[in-house]
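Form 7-S
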Amino acid sequence: MASHVYVLIAHQDGRLDDSALELAAAAAVLFPGAAPTALVAGAGPELEAACAAAAAAFPEVWKFDQAALAYPNAELLRPLLVKVLPAGAAVLLPHSTLGMDLGPGLAIKLGAAYLPDVVACEGQDGALLKVVRQEYNGQVSAHVHCDTSRGVVATLRSGAFRPAAVQAAGSVLDRSGDAAGLTARRRFLDVVPAEMGDIDITREEVLVSVGRGIGEQDNLPLVEELAEAMGAAMACSRPLVDAKWLAKARQVGTSGQTVKPKVYLALGISGSFQHLGGIKGSPFFVAVNKNPKAPIFQAATVGVVADLLELVPALTEEIRKGR
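Output:
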Protein backbone atom coordinates (compact mmCIF):
# COMPACT_ATOMS: atom_id res chain seq x y z
CA MET A 1 0.00 0.00 0.00
CA ALA A 2 1.36 3.42 -0.98
CA SER A 3 2.30 5.57 2.01
CA HIS A 4 2.69 8.75 -0.04
CA VAL A 5 -0.24 9.85 -2.20
CA TYR A 6 -0.13 12.93 -4.42
CA VAL A 7 -2.95 14.57 -6.38
CA LEU A 8 -2.39 16.95 -9.30
CA ILE A 9 -4.83 19.83 -9.06
CA ALA A 10 -6.30 21.45 -12.16
CA HIS A 11 -7.46 25.04 -11.78
CA GLN A 12 -8.41 28.09 -13.79
CA ASP A 13 -8.76 31.74 -12.79
CA GLY A 14 -7.98 30.81 -9.19
CA ARG A 15 -10.81 28.27 -8.95
CA LEU A 16 -10.28 24.54 -8.57
CA ASP A 17 -11.56 22.27 -11.30
CA ASP A 18 -14.29 19.85 -10.17
CA SER A 19 -11.77 17.05 -10.66
CA ALA A 20 -9.86 18.28 -7.58
CA LEU A 21 -12.50 17.17 -5.08
CA GLU A 22 -13.20 14.04 -7.14
CA LEU A 23 -9.53 13.08 -6.84
CA ALA A 24 -9.62 13.76 -3.11
CA ALA A 25 -12.54 11.33 -2.85
CA ALA A 26 -10.71 8.82 -5.06
CA ALA A 27 -7.61 9.00 -2.85
CA ALA A 28 -9.71 8.12 0.18
CA VAL A 29 -11.18 5.09 -1.63
CA LEU A 30 -7.99 3.84 -3.32
CA PHE A 31 -5.64 4.49 -0.40
CA PRO A 32 -7.67 4.61 2.83
CA GLY A 33 -5.82 6.15 5.72
CA ALA A 34 -3.29 7.99 3.56
CA ALA A 35 -3.14 11.80 3.75
CA PRO A 36 -2.96 12.99 0.12
CA THR A 37 -0.79 15.95 -0.81
CA ALA A 38 -2.12 18.38 -3.43
CA LEU A 39 0.26 19.49 -6.18
CA VAL A 40 -0.67 22.92 -7.54
CA ALA A 41 1.36 24.53 -10.32
CA GLY A 42 0.87 27.92 -11.94
CA ALA A 43 1.85 31.53 -11.54
CA GLY A 44 0.82 34.72 -9.76
CA PRO A 45 -2.35 35.64 -7.82
CA GLU A 46 -4.45 32.97 -9.54
CA LEU A 47 -2.11 30.30 -8.20
CA GLU A 48 -2.31 31.76 -4.69
CA ALA A 49 -6.11 31.58 -4.80
CA ALA A 50 -6.01 28.00 -6.10
CA CYS A 51 -3.60 26.96 -3.32
CA ALA A 52 -5.85 28.51 -0.68
CA ALA A 53 -8.82 26.60 -2.08
CA ALA A 54 -6.83 23.36 -2.21
CA ALA A 55 -5.76 23.82 1.44
CA ALA A 56 -9.43 23.64 2.42
CA ALA A 57 -9.62 20.10 1.02
CA PHE A 58 -6.12 18.64 1.46
CA PRO A 59 -3.93 18.43 4.57
CA GLU A 60 -0.87 19.61 2.64
CA VAL A 61 -0.43 21.59 -0.56
CA TRP A 62 2.79 21.92 -2.56
CA LYS A 63 2.91 25.16 -4.52
CA PHE A 64 5.02 25.53 -7.68
CA ASP A 65 5.03 29.16 -8.79
CA GLN A 66 6.81 29.72 -12.11
CA ALA A 67 5.80 31.80 -15.12
CA ALA A 68 6.38 28.81 -17.43
CA LEU A 69 3.72 26.86 -15.52
CA ALA A 70 0.98 29.46 -15.95
CA TYR A 71 -0.55 27.15 -18.55
CA PRO A 72 -0.35 23.37 -17.88
CA ASN A 73 2.38 21.72 -19.93
CA ALA A 74 3.16 18.03 -19.48
CA GLU A 75 6.70 18.50 -20.79
CA LEU A 76 7.40 20.82 -17.84
CA LEU A 77 5.39 19.00 -15.19
CA ARG A 78 6.90 15.58 -15.92
CA PRO A 79 10.53 16.38 -14.99
CA LEU A 80 9.32 18.52 -12.08
CA LEU A 81 7.31 15.68 -10.56
CA VAL A 82 10.10 13.18 -11.15
CA LYS A 83 12.38 15.53 -9.22
CA VAL A 84 10.15 16.12 -6.18
CA LEU A 85 8.21 12.88 -5.69
CA PRO A 86 9.61 10.15 -3.44
CA ALA A 87 10.16 6.58 -4.61
CA GLY A 88 7.05 4.42 -4.47
CA ALA A 89 4.63 7.36 -4.57
CA ALA A 90 1.07 7.07 -5.80
CA VAL A 91 0.11 9.89 -8.15
CA LEU A 92 -3.51 10.59 -9.09
CA LEU A 93 -4.31 12.66 -12.20
CA PRO A 94 -7.58 13.66 -13.85
CA HIS A 95 -8.30 11.63 -16.99
CA SER A 96 -8.16 14.79 -19.08
CA THR A 97 -6.03 15.79 -22.04
CA LEU A 98 -3.35 16.90 -19.57
CA GLY A 99 -3.55 13.70 -17.53
CA MET A 100 -3.38 11.50 -20.61
CA ASP A 101 -0.40 13.50 -21.88
CA LEU A 102 1.44 13.50 -18.56
CA GLY A 103 0.65 10.09 -17.08
CA PRO A 104 2.38 7.46 -19.27
CA GLY A 105 5.76 9.18 -19.43
CA LEU A 106 5.63 10.05 -15.73
CA ALA A 107 5.02 6.39 -14.84
CA ILE A 108 8.01 5.33 -16.95
CA LYS A 109 10.31 7.93 -15.39
CA LEU A 110 9.21 6.95 -11.88
CA GLY A 111 9.45 3.23 -12.59
CA ALA A 112 5.83 2.97 -11.45
CA ALA A 113 2.77 1.09 -12.66
CA TYR A 114 0.37 2.98 -14.92
CA LEU A 115 -3.42 2.78 -14.53
CA PRO A 116 -5.34 4.91 -17.04
CA ASP A 117 -9.04 5.76 -16.95
CA VAL A 118 -9.96 4.19 -13.60
CA VAL A 119 -13.71 4.20 -12.93
CA ALA A 120 -13.97 2.22 -9.68
CA CYS A 121 -11.99 0.55 -6.91
CA GLU A 122 -12.53 -3.02 -5.75
CA GLY A 123 -10.20 -2.88 -2.76
CA GLN A 124 -6.64 -3.66 -1.74
CA ASP A 125 -4.64 -6.68 -0.69
CA GLY A 126 -1.37 -5.33 0.65
CA ALA A 127 0.43 -3.70 -2.26
CA LEU A 128 -2.10 -5.14 -4.72
CA LEU A 129 -4.62 -2.54 -5.84
CA LYS A 130 -7.79 -3.80 -7.53
CA VAL A 131 -9.54 -1.35 -9.86
CA VAL A 132 -11.99 -1.28 -12.74
CA ARG A 133 -11.28 0.24 -16.15
CA GLN A 134 -13.46 0.39 -19.23
CA GLU A 135 -12.48 -0.69 -22.73
CA TYR A 136 -14.06 -0.74 -26.19
CA ASN A 137 -15.78 2.58 -25.57
CA GLY A 138 -17.25 1.40 -22.29
CA GLN A 139 -18.69 -1.86 -23.59
CA VAL A 140 -16.30 -3.97 -21.48
CA SER A 141 -15.31 -3.52 -17.83
CA ALA A 142 -11.76 -4.70 -17.19
CA HIS A 143 -10.90 -5.76 -13.63
CA VAL A 144 -7.23 -4.97 -13.10
CA HIS A 145 -4.93 -6.06 -10.26
CA CYS A 146 -1.94 -3.74 -9.99
CA ASP A 147 1.22 -4.11 -7.88
CA THR A 148 1.82 -0.68 -6.36
CA SER A 149 4.94 -1.60 -4.38
CA ARG A 150 7.06 0.53 -6.74
CA GLY A 151 4.48 3.26 -7.02
CA VAL A 152 1.58 3.93 -9.35
CA VAL A 153 0.40 6.71 -11.66
CA ALA A 154 -3.36 6.60 -12.24
CA THR A 155 -5.78 8.77 -14.17
CA LEU A 156 -9.35 8.90 -12.82
CA ARG A 157 -12.36 9.38 -15.06
CA SER A 158 -14.41 12.51 -14.46
CA GLY A 159 -17.53 11.76 -12.44
CA ALA A 160 -16.43 8.24 -11.43
CA PHE A 161 -15.75 9.22 -7.81
CA ARG A 162 -18.37 11.40 -6.17
CA PRO A 163 -16.78 14.36 -4.36
CA ALA A 164 -17.44 14.40 -0.64
CA ALA A 165 -17.72 17.43 1.61
CA VAL A 166 -14.19 17.75 2.97
CA GLN A 167 -12.85 20.31 5.40
CA ALA A 168 -9.12 20.56 6.06
CA ALA A 169 -6.89 23.19 7.57
CA GLY A 170 -4.11 22.33 5.19
CA SER A 171 -0.73 24.00 5.05
CA VAL A 172 0.84 25.37 1.85
CA LEU A 173 4.48 24.50 1.27
CA ASP A 174 6.26 26.63 -1.33
CA ARG A 175 8.30 24.31 -3.58
CA SER A 176 8.74 26.88 -6.35
CA GLY A 177 12.52 26.59 -6.21
CA ASP A 178 12.24 23.02 -7.50
CA ALA A 179 10.53 24.34 -10.63
CA ALA A 180 13.35 26.71 -11.61
CA GLY A 181 15.02 26.21 -14.96
CA LEU A 182 12.34 24.03 -16.54
CA THR A 183 12.39 23.99 -20.34
CA ALA A 184 10.20 22.39 -22.98
CA ARG A 185 10.19 22.04 -26.75
CA ARG A 186 6.62 23.24 -26.93
CA ARG A 187 5.20 26.37 -25.39
CA PHE A 188 1.80 27.86 -24.75
CA LEU A 189 0.73 30.56 -27.22
CA ASP A 190 -2.90 31.48 -26.68
CA VAL A 191 -6.38 30.22 -25.79
CA VAL A 192 -8.90 30.50 -28.60
CA PRO A 193 -12.41 30.38 -27.12
CA ALA A 194 -14.98 28.33 -29.01
CA GLU A 195 -17.66 30.17 -30.92
CA MET A 196 -20.81 30.27 -28.81
CA GLY A 197 -23.26 30.45 -31.69
CA ASP A 198 -26.92 31.19 -30.97
CA ILE A 199 -26.86 29.73 -27.44
CA ASP A 200 -24.46 29.34 -24.55
CA ILE A 201 -25.19 25.90 -23.09
CA THR A 202 -22.54 26.46 -20.40
CA ARG A 203 -24.97 28.85 -18.66
CA GLU A 204 -28.07 26.65 -18.87
CA GLU A 205 -29.43 24.98 -15.73
CA VAL A 206 -31.43 22.32 -17.57
CA LEU A 207 -30.08 20.50 -20.64
CA VAL A 208 -31.63 17.86 -22.87
CA SER A 209 -28.75 16.23 -24.72
CA VAL A 210 -29.13 13.85 -27.66
CA GLY A 211 -26.75 11.37 -29.25
CA ARG A 212 -26.54 9.03 -32.18
CA GLY A 213 -29.36 6.94 -30.69
CA ILE A 214 -31.75 9.44 -32.27
CA GLY A 215 -31.20 7.53 -35.51
CA GLU A 216 -32.06 10.14 -38.12
CA GLN A 217 -31.98 13.92 -38.36
CA ASP A 218 -35.72 13.91 -39.04
CA ASN A 219 -36.25 12.68 -35.46
CA LEU A 220 -34.63 15.71 -33.84
CA PRO A 221 -37.92 17.69 -33.59
CA LEU A 222 -39.08 15.09 -31.03
CA VAL A 223 -36.24 16.11 -28.75
CA GLU A 224 -36.74 19.80 -29.47
CA GLU A 225 -40.37 19.50 -28.34
CA LEU A 226 -39.29 17.78 -25.12
CA ALA A 227 -36.71 20.47 -24.40
CA GLU A 228 -39.30 23.17 -24.98
CA ALA A 229 -41.77 21.45 -22.65
CA MET A 230 -39.11 21.18 -19.94
CA GLY A 231 -37.92 24.76 -20.39
CA ALA A 232 -34.52 23.34 -21.24
CA ALA A 233 -31.82 23.99 -23.80
CA MET A 234 -30.90 21.33 -26.34
CA ALA A 235 -27.38 19.91 -26.44
CA CYS A 236 -25.75 16.93 -28.13
CA SER A 237 -22.80 14.56 -28.31
CA ARG A 238 -20.08 14.76 -30.94
CA PRO A 239 -21.54 12.42 -33.62
CA LEU A 240 -24.41 14.83 -34.26
CA VAL A 241 -21.98 17.71 -34.76
CA ASP A 242 -19.81 15.58 -37.07
CA ALA A 243 -22.93 14.79 -39.08
CA LYS A 244 -23.72 18.54 -39.16
CA TRP A 245 -27.14 17.96 -37.63
CA LEU A 246 -26.49 20.42 -34.80
CA ALA A 247 -24.05 23.30 -34.32
CA LYS A 248 -20.71 22.85 -32.60
CA ALA A 249 -21.85 25.30 -29.91
CA ARG A 250 -24.29 22.63 -28.66
CA GLN A 251 -21.71 19.85 -28.24
CA VAL A 252 -20.97 18.65 -24.70
CA GLY A 253 -17.60 17.00 -24.12
CA THR A 254 -13.86 17.43 -23.92
CA SER A 255 -13.79 18.58 -27.55
CA GLY A 256 -16.93 20.70 -27.10
CA GLN A 257 -18.43 22.68 -24.24
CA THR A 258 -18.00 22.04 -20.53
CA VAL A 259 -21.38 22.38 -18.82
CA LYS A 260 -22.52 22.45 -15.20
CA PRO A 261 -26.32 22.18 -15.21
CA LYS A 262 -28.63 21.29 -12.36
CA VAL A 263 -30.46 18.75 -14.55
CA TYR A 264 -28.95 16.76 -17.43
CA LEU A 265 -31.11 14.46 -19.56
CA ALA A 266 -29.07 12.30 -21.94
CA LEU A 267 -30.99 10.64 -24.76
CA GLY A 268 -29.34 7.95 -26.88
CA ILE A 269 -25.81 8.79 -25.69
CA SER A 270 -23.48 5.86 -25.01
CA GLY A 271 -21.37 7.71 -22.44
CA SER A 272 -17.80 7.86 -23.70
CA PHE A 273 -15.36 9.50 -21.30
CA GLN A 274 -14.93 12.33 -23.81
CA HIS A 275 -18.61 13.20 -23.43
CA LEU A 276 -18.79 12.69 -19.67
CA GLY A 277 -15.65 14.79 -19.26
CA GLY A 278 -17.68 17.81 -20.35
CA ILE A 279 -20.25 17.43 -17.55
CA LYS A 280 -19.15 19.02 -14.29
CA GLY A 281 -20.70 19.43 -10.90
CA SER A 282 -23.26 16.95 -9.61
CA PRO A 283 -26.37 17.41 -11.76
CA PHE A 284 -29.50 15.30 -11.49
CA PHE A 285 -28.42 13.06 -14.36
CA VAL A 286 -31.01 10.99 -16.23
CA ALA A 287 -29.87 8.68 -19.03
CA VAL A 288 -32.07 6.95 -21.61
CA ASN A 289 -30.55 4.23 -23.78
CA LYS A 290 -31.71 0.99 -25.39
CA ASN A 291 -28.49 -0.76 -24.38
CA PRO A 292 -28.66 -1.78 -20.69
CA LYS A 293 -24.85 -2.04 -20.65
CA ALA A 294 -24.25 1.47 -21.95
CA PRO A 295 -21.47 3.07 -19.88
CA ILE A 296 -23.51 6.24 -19.39
CA PHE A 297 -25.63 4.38 -16.82
CA GLN A 298 -22.62 4.24 -14.50
CA ALA A 299 -22.54 8.05 -14.37
CA ALA A 300 -26.32 8.61 -14.27
CA THR A 301 -28.42 9.32 -11.21
CA VAL A 302 -31.35 7.56 -12.91
CA GLY A 303 -31.09 5.18 -15.84
CA VAL A 304 -33.95 4.27 -18.18
CA VAL A 305 -33.61 1.36 -20.61
CA ALA A 306 -35.98 2.32 -23.41
CA ASP A 307 -36.25 3.35 -27.05
CA LEU A 308 -36.06 7.13 -26.94
CA LEU A 309 -38.28 7.41 -30.03
CA GLU A 310 -41.08 5.81 -27.99
CA LEU A 311 -40.28 7.38 -24.63
CA VAL A 312 -39.69 11.01 -25.65
CA PRO A 313 -43.16 11.74 -27.14
CA ALA A 314 -44.86 10.15 -24.11
CA LEU A 315 -42.62 12.08 -21.71
CA THR A 316 -43.30 15.35 -23.54
CA GLU A 317 -47.03 14.77 -23.31
CA GLU A 318 -46.90 14.02 -19.57
CA ILE A 319 -44.78 17.12 -18.86
CA ARG A 320 -47.21 19.32 -20.77
CA LYS A 321 -50.12 17.82 -18.81
CA GLY A 322 -48.30 18.50 -15.56
CA ARG A 323 -47.80 22.12 -16.47
